[in-house]
Amino acid sequence: MKLVSKSISNQEINMLAKQRFGNLVKAVVDLDKNIMAIDADLHADQESFLIQSGSKQKNLWGINLYPEKFGSIDFIEFDSMINLRPSQNNLSRNIENKKIRLEINKIVAKLITK
After folding, report:
1. pTM for this predicted structure
2. 60-65 and 76-77: which strand pairing?
3. CA dist 65 → 49, 95, 100 (Å)
């Protein structure tokens, strides 16, 4: 697992994908701190790691990154079990709030470069 607070290349994301799942890297984004944890078997592990590092659970959202689709709308998949949060009006694994999706897109674009 890796904490990303400064930019890394999509090439590095692609290498991590090939080492674990083949075509994707799981990530959890902290909307408040503009950081993310990447490269673990479960989003829940990344969520726990970030909470232990001082993040608040309400700011953490799980995504999947597909490095071969970098630059396209399909690069980020907003799907994770940790996103199931009735208390925050998110009733599915997908992130339903468009504003949250936009914030995640901005953070990921800042942290992952070509």
Report:
1. 0.96
2. antiparallel
3. 19, 14, 16
Selection from 35, 73, 40 nearest residue 54 by Cα: 35
How many angstroms separate the CA atoms of 54 and 17, rounded?
27
Number of domains, the chain: 1
Q: Could you say which DSSP state residue 82 is in? A: G
CA distance 7 to 39: 15
Tokens of 87: 């208390």
Mean pLDDT by 10 residues, the chain (114 residues): 97 96 97 97 98 97 98 97 96 97 98 96
What are the tokens at 97? 């709030």
Residue 61 structural domain: 2-113
